Amino acid sequence: MKDRLIALIDSALDTLTANGVLPAEARQPVRIERTKDKSHGDFATNIALMLAKPAGLKPRDLAQALLDALPADPALAKAEIAGPGFINFFQSDNWLASQLEAALADDHLAVPRPQRPLTVVVDYSGPNLAKEMHVGHLRSTIIGDAVVRSLEFLGHQVIRQNHVGDWGTQFGMLLAYLEEQKAEEGETELSRELANLETFYRAAKLRFDESPAFADRARALVVKLQSGDEYCLKLWNEFNQVSLSHCYAVYERLGVSLTAADVRGESTYNDDLPKVVADLDAAGLLTEDQGALCVFLDAFRNKDGDTLPVIVRKADGGYLYATTDLAALRYRAGQLHADRILYFVDQRQALHFQQMFAVAREAGFVGAGVDLAHMGFGTMNGPDGKPFKTRDGGTVKLIDLLDEAEQRAYQLVSEKNPELGQDELRAIAHAVGIGAVKYSDLSKNRSSDYIFNFDLMLSFDGNTAPYLLYAYTRVVSVFRKAGLSLDQAQGEFLLREEAEQALAARLVQFGEAVQSVADKGQPHLLCAYLYDVAGLFSSFYEHCPILSGDDDALRASRLKLAALTARTLSEGLRLLGLTPLERM
User: Fold this and answer.
1) CA-CA-CA-CA dihedral for 396, 397, 401, 404, to nearest 10
2) How far, in Å, CA of 453 to CA of 437, rounded?
3) In which family does this protein belong, per the annotation (predicted)?
């Protein structure tokens, strides 16, 4: 509805500009806000107050001129001037009912598909295959996945890119240790060693630090690996497959949509790195600085005013992350034909991506029409406000965090539902525990840091996963009591009470909420929307009896409103990567 009103006001402003009432250069973007007091309408704008001075009119006079020029629209019952020059808009109940009917009748909840679907490449998760996934990988993985789901729901073609760290000097160390273990313990013991990647990595690092001979062997293996030695590539591939299997186990546990087909690691671009450097040179962008090849762009300077370099080849001939990222950008724009490329990477990498995007455009690797966006996020912190760690200061494995979440959820649901069987309790605990971890993160603005707290995220009060999952079960329980399925609700929508109207008005904004996630990469906007819907249903449930009463038409209408609420909550939860429950 907001977009619809903005289009109407823009049309009225066009008329006033064409008639000379408003100077063209005075135009500003129209902002529409939902009103808190429904007696003042459903939406309001202050555009007349903003443009009155350049128009040379009193705000109320300009507001009246806007209303006179406003095109007729079936969605609007009326619009009126309030206070010093605000314009309040009242939705039409008949139009609202028609929108509800369309949403309930459509598997896609009447959310429109784009006329020209975009190809959107999304880079997210990207763990380092040298180690098991830890809590630092959670945000990229689940935020990226929620945005991917939203984009696909809207009808865009999404290409997932899991840019795993599967190349670099640390692999020489790991391959050397892997080689030793094969010789000493054999294949069976080796697979047992690799079952705990963190232990394996620490043991390899200890050998590297303590044994000069081992360190020399590790460095030699790096050279051989990078030159394509068949034996080294075999060991490297074996290690990566085991390491990736750990990632897939976490993805399955989290319920994210990444698969083996989405992996395109750093090693993929290895053969293209010399060509990237050559093409940067051909474009006149390279400068040699102390033996290293760099790109200097005037837009990036330090506090002293010195231009910051983007190093693409070190003095020793080695390449850096920047070179690989440039190769990936060129591949995604040129080979995947991306319209948008989104990166869900820690906010601390903001400068890196600003530089990569600028260099890629200067070099012609990415055309001007391709939207490049770094969707940075803050850190998940412990109670001390510092990045989340174990009690002894070590890195928390993501799988261990998920285990604890499920165990805590199991204790919680067991206490509430002692009559349920073990299988059902475990299934509910999985949905609640994993959902709680994900929703606690997704409900925060991604650019902000947040404090990880099991007690808060598993609470049934407030904007939490248990609250929303329970809200859904509460709606479907109405249909169990009625002996009906959700698709059996019949009749017309009769929006007589304020609680009905408020819930209905919010339900038809589902598409706007999903679109905002797709546009801004901010899943918390969908979380806030679902929390609003759950709260409005609670008020509706309290003030508008659904199954009791003698008015069959009103009962049918309220059942239909409940059915659309259930479907909206269910779809929204699924887009966030949560599993709706029939009971809990």
Assistant:
1) -100
2) 9
3) Belongs to the class-I aminoacyl-tRNA synthetase family.
